[in-house]
Amino acid sequence: MSWYELLVFLHISAAIIWLGAGFLMTLVIFGARSAGDRAKELSEQQGLGWLAPRLFIPASLSTMIFGVLLVIDSDFWSFDQLWITIGLAGWLVSFVLGFFYFRPEGERIGAIVGERGPNAPELDRRLLAVTAVDRVQVTILFLVVADMVAKPTGDDTGILIVGALIVAAAIAAAALAIRGGAAPERPAA
Prior knowledge:
Helices cover 83% and strands 0% of the residues. It is mainly α and 189 residues long.
């Protein structure tokens, strides 16, 4: 195995772990929310707080670092290629969301549960918002994978437009969900 092949393997493996774990958690939390299982939803949200420094941050950073090393090591990739810029932008969006939104919002949710209990009225709105923003993030990560496969240039306007429309639709759906506050009815405790 060459150095380049090792970097490709490590880059793809880290991305699989990062996206796979994120997608799984999105499905588990969505399932708990759809079933009206507040205890499971809160438990999974708290699990994310535990997993972030142990799984998501290392996998995210590894994906980016190995990707950057691939570009540096390669004779045919460069940082001025559009698909690499898109990939780095997608990584940055995810990292910024994690650090500046998910982490502090998870702490706020934990504080609310600690102070007012798991049935505090504002929890539904906060949990709904976190879930909606997470769906946008996972959508962006899937689009980054598509970007890495398709490697679009400025001439691939169809691919770029479709990707932009998918991001816009995900953001619109999240905004509507948050604005509408469409939380399922919770069974009485």
